[in-house]
């Protein structure tokens, strides 16, 4: 196919999509006015899109509609709107768009986050819920504690490398929980492979703006020859697919080999594989749900923990208040444990505020509307991509006074049930309805434990330069999907010699 022919086909497809969009645009929710053919393409900012979406929310309201080459894109900017559509009308809002680049070309169609809604998705979700439901979380406690104590020891030994320690912790903890694999060095091959996969998903495959590529809008481009000028995405996808599939195959094969040798540790995979042989389909499902777990959790954990340190550095009064609560309970004689959680309401508030302040995946992952719908008197066309603007929900000044500030006390105020739900970020930062992250209970337990132990044993302060002047931490972000800050200067030190001893003893015992 010649370049001219390809361009003509592109123009014809765009024209057809635009003409169709004119019909569907009638009575759609408010939003920026689209241009012919390309729609609102020029309105999008594919870096930190959540900020642009929040600006649209300020201008157009709770529900904002745009289109890209005729495909609808809807932003839900309040918890009420997201709950109304993604939860109460979940059966028609739980599909995923046809993600040609990510799913079909890069090989992510078996990862539950990208799976289309149907029997296959429901089967994968039931499998994950059977091992990750709230009732199963105590089974993972020894793994969580062992990784937490080892992380604390590394943080005490070389605090200046805190971001690398968080990366290793998030990766090694996930590999331990999912595969029973213990990471022992920073250059562990399984850890490096996980980081490579995450970099691809967060900064390459999804970097075109929440995972939307031109081939997703114009699927016929999937069939253009990879040698054609402008078809570089095909060559990239072929290389990326190899990385994605290797990331699923190799650690799972390691688990199978360990089970055959009789030395496999308790983990997600062994819990589901059991002692009896499983059929090929179930094994395939376990392999890909395991891969989905470790892809989904590492960056979310890294984002939240790096913001936790940032919050403790910038808001020392909150840190000291949480430390005092822990000290009053433990007497400084032991590390806090999951059994202490109910007795530490301020630490709980710190965790909730950290989730809100961070908003790890600020636009979530897109849903797809499966049939025409009407909301608030406005038509939403079938096939519209739906984004929950979690950033807006967690920074809505009507719900959170001074939303840019870190204020754990807001969760200790007496409010009615409706306000309490809107203020509880746990109910929406992990997604909505049938697409809510099935690992949210495990993530919650892990984050609480590591934050409580860090507060019990460490102090966080602003760094100073050679002249003694305070260095204010700056927040810089270079990830297109997750709000992972670049490393900022700070001072992390043990609270006391006794705190160091507690960590050392716990790390050795684990």
Task: Write out key terms for the chains shown.
two-stranded antiparallel ribbon; 19 helices; 8 strands; 52% helix
In terms of topology, how is this protein built?
Elements: H1 3-24, H2 49-60, E1 63-68, E2 71-76, H3 79-87, H4 90-93, H5 100-105, H6 119-132, H7 141-157, H8 162-179, H9 189-205, H10 214-217, H11 232-261, H12 268-273, H13 280-314, H14 316-330, H15 345-358, E3 367-368, E4 373-375, E5 378-380, E6 385-388, H16 390-394, H17 417-423, H18 440-457, E7 458-462, E8 490-494, H19 497-509
Parallel strand pairs: 2-6
Antiparallel strand pairs: 1-2, 3-6, 4-5, 7-8
Helix pairs in contact: 7-8, 7-18, 7-19, 8-9, 8-13, 9-11, 11-13, 13-14, 13-15
Cofactor: heme
Protein name: Cytochrome P450 monooxygenase
Keywords: Heme, Iron, Membrane, Metal-binding, Monooxygenase, Oxidoreductase, Signal, Transmembrane, Transmembrane helix
Q: Can you characterise this structure?
A:
This is Cytochrome P450 monooxygenase. InterPro entries: Cyt_P450, Cyt_P450_CS, Cyt_P450_E_grp-I, Cyt_P450_sf, Cytochrome_P450_fung. The protein is built from 19 helices and eight strands. It is α+β, with helices and mostly antiparallel strands and 510 residues long. The protein has a four-stranded mixed β-sheet with strand order 1-2-6-3. A two-stranded antiparallel ribbon has the order 4-5. A two-stranded antiparallel sheet has the order 7-8. The radius of gyration is 24 Å and the shape is globular. The termini are far apart. The model is unreliable at 1-19 (pLDDT under 50).
């Amino acid at each position: 196919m010649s370049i001219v022919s390809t361009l003509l086909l592109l123009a014809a497809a765009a024209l057809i999509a635009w003409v169709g969009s004119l019909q569907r645009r009638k009575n759609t929710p408010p939003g920026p006015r689209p241009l012919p053919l390309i729609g609102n393409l020029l309105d999008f900012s594919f870096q930190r899109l959540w900020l642009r979406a929040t600006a649209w929310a300020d201008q157009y309201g709770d529900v904002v509609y745009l289109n890209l080459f005729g495909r609808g894109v809807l932003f839900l900017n309040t918890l009420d709107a997201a709950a109304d559509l993604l939860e109460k009308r979940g059966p028609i809002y739980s599909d995923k768009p046809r993600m040609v680049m990510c799913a079909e070309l890069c090989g992510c169609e078996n990862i539950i986050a990208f799976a289309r809604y149907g029997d296959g998705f429901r089967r994968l979700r039931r499998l994950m819920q059977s091992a990750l439901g709230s009732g199963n979380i105590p089974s993972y406690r020894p793994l969580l504690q062992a990784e937490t104590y080892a992380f604390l020891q590394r943080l005490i030994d070389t605090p200046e490398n805190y971001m690398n320690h968080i990366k290793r912790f998030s990766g090694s903890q996930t590999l331990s929980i999912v595969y029973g694999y213990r990471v022992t060095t920073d250059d562990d091959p399984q850890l490096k492979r996980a980081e490579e996969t995450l970099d691809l998903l967060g900064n390459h495959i999804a970097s075109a703006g929440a995972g939307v590529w031109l081939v997703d809008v114009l699927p016929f481009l999937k069939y253009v020859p990879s040698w054609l000028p402008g078809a570089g995405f095909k060559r990239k996808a072929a290389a990326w697919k190899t990385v994605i599939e290797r990331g699923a195959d190799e650690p799972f094969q390691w688990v199978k080999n360990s089970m055959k040798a009789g030395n496999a540790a308790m983990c997600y995979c062994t819990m589901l594989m059991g002692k009896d042989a499983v059929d090929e389909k179930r094994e395939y499902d376990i392999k890909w749900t395991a891969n989905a777990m470790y892809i989904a959790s590492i960056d979310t954990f890294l984002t939240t923990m790096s913001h936790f340190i940032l919050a403790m550095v910038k808001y020392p009064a909150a840190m000291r208040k949480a430390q005092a609560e822990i000290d009053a309970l433990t007497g400084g004689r032991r590390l806090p444990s999951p059994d202490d959680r109910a007795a530490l309401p301020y630490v709980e508030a710190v965790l909730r505020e950290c989730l809100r302040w961070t908003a790890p995946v600020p636009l979530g992952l897109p849903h797809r509307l499966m049939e025409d719908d009407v909301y608030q008197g406005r038509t939403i066309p079938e096939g519209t991509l739906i984004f929950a603007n979690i950033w807006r929900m967690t920074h809505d000044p009507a719900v959170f006074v001074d939303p840019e500030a870190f204020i754990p006390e807001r969760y200790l105020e007496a409010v009615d049930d409706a306000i309490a739900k809107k203020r509880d970020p746990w109910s929406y930062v992990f997604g909505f309805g049938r697409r809510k992250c099935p690992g949210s209970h495990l993530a919650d337990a892990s984050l609480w434990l590591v934050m409580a132990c860090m507060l019990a044993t460490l102090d966080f302060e602003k760094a100073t330069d050679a002249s003694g002047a305070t260095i204010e931490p700056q927040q810089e972000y270079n990830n297109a999907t997750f709000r992972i800050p670049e490393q900022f200067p700070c001072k992390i030190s043990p609270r006391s010699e006794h705190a160091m001893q507690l960590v050392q003893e716990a790390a050795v015992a684990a």
